[in-house]
Task: inverse folding
């Protein structure tokens, strides 16, 4: 089951900005903003974007992504795929852990078995809805870990057996859940201490930790001299700084404390008015989708009326998405009318993005007040009710632009749909997550960050057994399509699978299971002396492995 909940709201920050003193960017060290704390460095447990990013700074998996997002070798120097697409044989290069141990195939076997056995929030990614590793679902449910479809014929050969072909499997190998763990090192630690300090975390990647504690606002890294590709790593040492607000981020960038920050809303307006500062502003696509989740449980104690599809369609068509992105977010985010974000998941054969046609479902998703009111009138007739009071929940630590967005949605819906009242309910992220997983909401503003560059990273959310977000929607036709596309008859037929996913998307949107709002972007200020950072729309969004700070020349 997909429980990737802590990644849903990547803009929430939970630590206050503090200066870096002598270790600041102005003194020659790359210093990067994190917008929330790192939660865990255990790849079997972490679920949040900052944690995945820091792990990827320090550990290499079998594959890595090039600047264009294509899978290229990392620890696996080469690999072969069987004719049926269900067996991968990876041949490992000579690589070392930071303690001098060789990186072996057994490190991958240990890590993958451990991830499934622990059955933490991201274990689902090993199973039948994503990677389809043989017997992963059974191991997650308690079967013997040795039955997992992974083996090490020798120390340099790692074999993976799948239950079905997975066209994006090589790219998945760049995601931290699939990274290795040194078994001997792990077993030498006290229970529960792995990844809690630099001494209890072992790197095989470009960087090692020099200063880190869970929840800390400052994280220090330095180059790993034993990294297999160390000659290409140009940063000797650098740091992350957790910053709690866009205002503080802008101030830190202007005074030289930080080299890279994310800003939004009014800060973007300020930067655009500054001729010099605006030259350092760039918008980077994140691949995340913001949308409204509707709780369709007819027993919902707040408003069971949302089990009515026409009421959900009315709300979706009453929202001016262009106004949200242009007037309140202003960071390059794009109004979206599909269940898959824009500029995401290119077709391997045509190169066209899955959601390239934003008018494909205009019958169900648009900004059309007349249509919205027609849907509302149908809902009133079907429910024999003329007034609806609905609660919209959101995390109040998700940034100023989020507050403006929900206020705008409230205003638009109430103005365009007579008889519908939206009550805004802000709350801390932890409470928000509890609400959406325990059926205690009407509507929730949701942000979903893709784990891999394929539409299925979204479509599995809305299967009957998919996400922990309780939309309380189930559709057997939809479930069958997703099953066919993952482990069924369409898994090995690229074109048929692609077309079937459009059929699934139509079912989602004609039923208004969600109301897509916008594809997220990040407005970043990057110092002109910083180059070589890779940005990706899925998985680990920022990669600093080959970044360069010119002042280090």
Result:
């Amino acid at each position: 089951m997909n429980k990737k909940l802590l990644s849903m709201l990547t803009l929430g920050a939970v630590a206050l900005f503090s200066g870096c003193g002598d270790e600041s960017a102005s003194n020659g060290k790359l210093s990067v903003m994190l917008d929330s704390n790192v939660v865990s460095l255990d790849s079997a447990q972490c679920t949040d974007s900052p944690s995945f990013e820091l792990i990827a700074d320090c550990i290499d998996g079998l594959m890595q992504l090039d600047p264009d997002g294509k899978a290229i070798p990392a620890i696996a120097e080469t690999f072969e795929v069987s004719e049926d697409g269900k067996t991968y044989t990876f041949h490992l290069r000579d690589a070392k852990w930071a303690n001098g141990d060789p990186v072996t195939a057994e490190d991958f076997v240990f890590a993958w078995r451990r991830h499934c056995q622990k059955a933490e929030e991201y274990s689902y990614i090993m199973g039948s809805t994503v990677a389809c590793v043989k017997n992963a679902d059974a191991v997650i449910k308690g079967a013997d870990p040795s039955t997992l479809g992974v083996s090490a014929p020798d120390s340099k050969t790692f074999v993976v057996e799948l239950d079905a072909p997975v066209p994006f499997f090589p790219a998945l190998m760049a995601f931290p859940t699939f990274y290795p763990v040194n078994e001997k090192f792990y077993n030498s630690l006290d229970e529960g201490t792995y990844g809690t300090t630099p001494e209890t975390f072992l790197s095989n990647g470009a960087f090692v930790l020099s200063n880190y504690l869970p929840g800390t606002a400052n994280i220090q890294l330095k180059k790993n001299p034993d990294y297999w590709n160390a000659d290409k790593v140009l940063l000797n040492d650098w740091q992350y700084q957790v910053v709690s607000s866009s205002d503080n981020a802008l101030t830190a960038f202007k005074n030289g404390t930080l080299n890279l920050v994310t800003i939004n809303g009014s800060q973007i307006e300020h930067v655009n008015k500054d001729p010099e500062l605006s030259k350092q502003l760039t918008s980077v696509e994140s691949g995340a989708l913001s949308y409204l989740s509707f709780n369709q449980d007819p027993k919902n104690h707040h408003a069971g009326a949302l089990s009515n599809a026409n009421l959900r369609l009315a709300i979706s068509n009453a929202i001016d998405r262009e106004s949200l992105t242009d007037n309140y977010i202003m960071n390059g985010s794009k109004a979206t009318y599909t269940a898959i974000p824009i500029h995401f998941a290119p077709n391997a054969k045509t190169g066209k993005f899955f959601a390239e046609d934003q008018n494909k479902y205009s019958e169900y998703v648009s900004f059309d007040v007349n249509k919205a009111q027609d849907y509302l009138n149908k809902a009133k007739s079907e429910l024999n009710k003329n007034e609806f009071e609905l609660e919209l929940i959101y995390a109040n630590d998700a940034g100023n632009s989020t507050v403006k967005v929900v206020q705008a949605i409230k205003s638009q819906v109430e103005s365009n749909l007579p008889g519908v009242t939206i009550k805004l309910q802000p709350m801390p992220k932890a409470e928000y997550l509890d609400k959406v997983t325990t059926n205690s909401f009407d509507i929730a503003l949701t942000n979903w960050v893709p784990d891999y560059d394929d539409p299925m990273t979204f479509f599995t959310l809305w299967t009957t057994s998919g996400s922990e977000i309780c939309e309380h929607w189930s559709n057997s036709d939809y479930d069958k399509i997703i099953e066919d596309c993952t482990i069924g008859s369409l898994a090995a037929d690229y074109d048929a699978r692609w077309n079937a996913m459009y059929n699934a998307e139509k079912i989602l949107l004609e039923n208004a299971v969600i109301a897509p709002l916008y594809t997220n972007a990040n407005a970043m200020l990057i110092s002109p002396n910083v180059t070589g950072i890779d940005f990706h729309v899925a998985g680990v969004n920022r990669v600093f492995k080959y970044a360069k700070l010119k002042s280090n020349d």
